[in-house]
Amino acid sequence: MRVMFLAFLAIFAIAFLANFGLDHAGFSSEQRQSSANVRIN
Amino acid sequence: MTLLRRAVLLLVLAICAGSVAAQDADLPPLSHDTEQAPVHPRQTLDDILKRQDGIADPRQPRDFTTEAERALPAHTQLGTLGGVSDAEVWDALRFGTAEVKVSAGGPQARVVIQNGGMDWLKLRRGPLATYGGWLLLGTIAVLALFFLVRGRIRISHGWSGIRILRFTAVERFFHWLTAGSFVLLALTGLFTLFGRKTIGLLSGTGDPQTYDSARAAYAAMAHYSKWIHNNVSWAFMLGLVFVFILWVAHNIPNRLDLVWFAKGGGIIGNGHPPARKFNAGQKIVFWSVILLGASISVSGLSLLFPFEMPLFAATFAKLNALGVPGWFGLAPFPDQLAAQEEMQYAQLWHAIVAFVLMAIILAHIYIGSIGMEGAFDAMGDGEVDLNWAREHHSLWVEEVEMEDPGFRRARASPAE
Questions:
Q1: How far apart are CA B152 and CA A15, in angstroms?
Q2: Could you give the ipTM of this predicted complex?
Q3: Shortest alpha-carbon distance between residue B372 and chain A (Å)
Q4: Nearest CA-CA distance, residue B289 and chain A, Å
Q5: Could you tell me the sign of the dihedral formed by the alpha carbons of B58, B63, B68, B72, in that order?
């Protein structure tokens, strides 16, 4: 059962690592979806 | 005097006639154009009511360019829009015929109104949530019924007290990495689809303040749920890759699988068909996890990086080229999709495939836990009882015995 709990911990470790890594690599989802200027002709 | 009066009258008439003629010369021949141009049905209250009821949308996309070309110049009496009314501008935006320029944001930012968005929303709220929900509830009901009828599948020869290593620590680690992340993804995915409505219903006391508090609570929960869903997905994808590498060689279909199916997998009745490390049922689960999991991952990546991984227009074009829609008597799939439509297809596909995989995994969880005595040990501590192994994986036990005759490990007390 130790391996199972270790894997569960690893899930969150990977999640935090991925979030940190993507944010610092310029892949912030919020940033890329920010509003653009729209002009209607 | 009479002559003078007549002369003045003639002068006034001449001035008026001249100014009218000059004004006419500035204007395009409106009446003539109107007769030649196609007449668009104007929207009526009845049309709006019909559309709101979802009966039909009587309007068709208009050629905004033609309308604009026919429009009066901006400096005339009809104002800055020329001859184009507000309704026509909104129509053009709605049907994607307006020329929209943006300074940033890519092609998707040029779509101000996406007409198909309502179809997606209706599908998501309607058939997707309804059939998806019933699929999961139905699966749980079938498993519960099966448990009541069949009961727990016992080890026919009882516990031997001898343990055999079934899965190594590495195998178990990646199994639980995939399984744990999938459960989290499934729960947060379901929360995204059903959470708002469920919380609203649970707080249905009729008190607006309670309802508002529940909605606010949902917003906070949805925020964290989204964080989990987006970031835990990486663990799932990593687990999927390793599970594939570790077990693909053991999951190649062979003739033994037909025997296994012919005997109902030993689940129905008391027979135990021979099997190697994985029986045919487990192979179905393996390939479902790999193929459906990969499909969910790819559509999930498309959603994680919005507008950067369009998948469906290209896929539809290939399917059309193969003539796949015709096999089912369908019209060709749309192979020109707006960026937003790509995202909507990705979301629908992601959810549909996820629902199917969730149903399969429910059955897998059942048989690996309460459904079969001794099965959980394989992934619990990695060792299973020898009698269990001989009953469910007889050929695999023979292989292990041949490779390593000293594999057995006595255990003081039976597991469970």
A1: 37
A2: 0.82
A3: 18
A4: 18
A5: negative
Whole-number mean pLDDT of chain A?
Answer: 77
> Residues B329, B397: contact at Cβ < 8 Å?
no
Of A1, A3, A37, the CB nearest to B102: A37
Residue B167 predicted with pLDDT over 60: yes
Whether residues B382 and A29 touch (CB distance < 8 A) is answered with: no
* Overall pTM surpassing 0.90 (yes/no): no
> Rounded to an integer, what distance in angstroms lies between the CA atom of residue B255 and that of residue B391?
19
Which helix or strand (DSSP H or E) is residue B100 part of?
strand B100-102
Does the structure show a pLDDT above 60 at B223? yes
DSSP B239-264: HHHHHHHHHGGGG---HHHHHHHHTG
DSSP assignment of B270-334, as one string?
S-----SSS-HHHHHHHHHHHHHHHHHHHHHHHHHSTTTS--HHHHHHHHHHHTHHHHTTPPPPP
The partner residue sitting opposite B181, judged by closest CB among A3, A4, A11, is A11
- Test B100 with A40 for CB contact under 8 angstroms: yes
Is residue B358 within 8 A of residue B186, CB to CB? The reply is yes
Mean of the per-residue pLDDT values for chain B?
81
pLDDT digits (tens, 9 = 90+) for B83-101: 566 777 788 888 777 888 8
Instruction: Tell me the chain B residues in contact with residue A7 when contact means C-beta distances shorter than 8 Å.
Output: 172-177, 180
For residue range B11-30, what is the model confidence (pLDDT) as tens digits?
Answer: 444 444 444 444 444 434 33
Give mean pLDDT, residues B216-224. 87
Residue B103 contacts A, CB cutoff 8 Å: yes
Element (H, E) at A39: strand A38-40
Residue B323: pLDDT band (50, 70, 90) is very high
Whether residues A8 and B101 touch (CB distance < 8 A) is answered with no
Is residue B153 within 8 A of residue B373, CB to CB? The reply is yes
Is the distance from CB of B304 to CB of A29 less than 8 angstroms? yes
